[in-house]
Design goal:
There is one protein chain. The protein is α+β, with helices and mostly antiparallel strands. It has 13 helices and 17 strands. The protein has 2 domains: 174 residues, 2-Layer Sandwich (Chloramphenicol Acetyltransferase), CATH 3.30.559; 278 residues, Nonribosomal peptide synthetase, condensation domain (Chloramphenicol Acetyltransferase, 2-Layer Sandwich), CATH 3.30.559.30. It is 35% helix and 22% strand. β15 and β16 form a beta hairpin. The chain is globular.
Amino acid sequence: MRRLSPLDAAWLTVESRDTPMHVASLVILSKPKNAGENYLIELAEQLRSSRTFVPPFNLKIKQSPLKNVLPVVKEHRDIDMEYHVRHSALPKPGGERELGQIVSRLHAHQLDLTRPLWECHLIEGLEGDRFALYTKMHHSLVDGVAGVRILQQAFSTNARDRNMPPPWSKPAATNNKAAAKKADPEAKQEFSSPTALAAEAMGGVKKQAKSVSGLARIFGEFGKARGSDTNKLSSPFDAPKSVFNGRVTPPRRFATQQYDITRVKKVAAAAGVTLNDVVLGLCGTALRRFLLESNALPDKSLTAGIPVSVRPAGDINVGTAISFIISTLGTDIADPKLRLEEIHQATTRAKQELQKLSRSQIDRYTLLLMGPFIGALVAGLGGRTRPVFNITISNVPGPDKPLYFNGARMEGIFPVSLLSHGQALNITCLSYNGNLNFGFTACRDTLPHTQRLSVYTGEALEEYEALYKTKTKSRAKAS
């Protein structure tokens, strides 16, 4: 039994019917060629029959009756697998739209906090003789990067492997080199889970406020950025009011988009920017069009909070290793080339400032910047105060080879993220086997036509391909 850190406990504190604090993945799989008529029934029985459980799947929250005492987690052996593993079916025709609708409903429901904090839904009836696995887990126990790696570890690169245990029964592999690199301030950075960074702010603000030396310069740069046409560093709390930054309600919308990652890389190379800049450019272009159609585009550009993970490769431990940057999305610029250039300048400037800080200074910078955000959520003021930024956009690196589970091939994996008051839309990307998979998670009442964003993002890529004259034969798939 161990006590939750203040960082992890923060996600339990802000848990509500409107804002369930779980993250999820949607995995699309093709049945093995020799699959029988009862393949999925047998698979569901196999998943439920496992009686071996490993962390974090066997952890149960025990709330303390004493005020201001953090909850603890303890191992739980008697797990009701009929509850945690569920079998559903899509209505015909079993397309991407029908799948998106059922995932939206599943994602809107809170996890039962009196049980181990996870659910796995086996969904059959997807066209093309495919099926899906939707798995969600509370963010107090796992962040996005670790969740992807736990799932990845449960799959195999060998299509012939059988009798494979499910993710909740396979012990985590250790990585001593990764643990050593975790303390390295020069560790390679990557975009990460869009919400893991905010949890750190809850428990660390008081501690970090005692030592802010070295941060005055970067906050001074933020001050210079306000009202400056030459300093491209985007400032926190300098975001305009938008439809994305109000209160949220329980219903969710989920949509996906999938590209051949080579297409995105070609545009990046031709434009002289990074792949992540192109991702932001696609999102900015889609958001501008979406807001113009509803006559809701602010005069000032939307800004994006971009989480950056310093979690070492192979590390799947619970906890966070996060910083972030803020960038313009260029939604106030009509020319798509100029928009991408503006984004590139903003992200380059932000990275330069972040790289000047030591690892400890990065931690303090992150906590001090995000403290008001998490504090507003705890105080019930989320969505009623000025946003730190308008939207969170992240890019999580995933497996680069095809994976299999007992012969079923993984065709795609899509992130399904959480929302909070003041953040009614989340866009998360996850790479897998040569594809870049987008997951659009939104509040249904705020953005009932979320699928349009998915479509517009695909059309934005085609527009950039035409502008930079990059050739491709593949097309995007939207749902």
